[in-house]
Design brief:
Residues 35-180 form the Flavin reductase like domain. Residues 1-22 have a biased composition (Basic and acidic residues). Keywords: Oxidoreductase. Its EC number is 1.-.-.-. The chain is of the alpha+beta class and 185 residues long. It has a single domain, classed as Pnp Oxidase, Chain A. The chain is built from four helices and twelve strands, in the order ααβββββαβαββββββ. The strands form three sheets. The protein has a seven-stranded antiparallel sheet with strand order 3-2-6-9-10-5-4. Strands 1-11-12 form a three-stranded antiparallel sheet, with no helix packed on it. It has a two-stranded antiparallel sheet with strand order 7-8.
Length: 185
């Protein structure tokens, strides 16, 4: 390739990049990196396994408020997760908003091979959903609806009860890493 062809190709690539990218399911890394530029909070969702009733948890950053009246929240469960079916069919679940000092708790539930509930101080609510202590906020929910959303299931919960800490910094997730939040002056 001649030097002028190389320059022309480089200019063409730069122009294409300036116009943006199209999502490519065969190569999702670039889209994941772009989505990772949005800082989110970190939660652990807990419920009961479908068949055995054993406690189950998963770390999630796809949590959002939907409505105050009625009190509705949502989160998205990856269909590729081995835990997906349990959460997609759970009649009740709890969302635990993690504080800056709870990255280890998030890591416990970020893969199916993590230690999960082993050694944790938990209690069960009226629906037998495991509740974690020491979180910034906790929302005990009954499943209101589920919706297919591509490779995820969007789970909407009706908040039956919630708790909140009076203070504390959030655990954040940005660019594939946990971190903190420093408020501006």
């Amino acid at each position: 390739m001649s030097e002028s062809d190389k320059i022309e190709a480089a200019v063409e690539r730069a122009e294409e990049a300036a116009e943006g990218h199209q999502p490519d399911p065969a190569a999702p890394r670039l889209l994941r990196d772009a989505l990772g530029r949005f800082a989110t909070g970190v939660t652990v969702i807990t419920a009961r396994e479908e068949e055995t009733g054993a406690p189950i948890g998963i770390t999630v950053n796809s949590f959002a408020s939907v409505s105050l009246d009625p009190a509705l929240v949502l989160w998205s469960a990856a269909r590729s997760s081995l835990r997906h079916r349990h959460f997609a069919t759970a009649p009740a679940f709890a969302i635990h908003v993690l504080g800056a000092d709870q990255a280890d708790l998030a890591k416990r539930f970020s893969s199916s091979s993590g230690p999960g509930f082993e050694g944790l101080d938990t209690r069960l609510n009226a629906q037998a959903v495991p509740l974690l202590s020491g979180c910034l906020a906790r929302f005990e929910c009954e499943t209101e609806a589920t919706h297919e959303g591509g490779d995820h299931t969007i789970i909407i919960g009706r908040v039956a009860r919630f708790t909140l800490a009076q203070e504390g910094a959030p655990l954040c997730f940005f660019g594939g890493r946990f971190g903190g939040f420093a408020p501006s002056a």
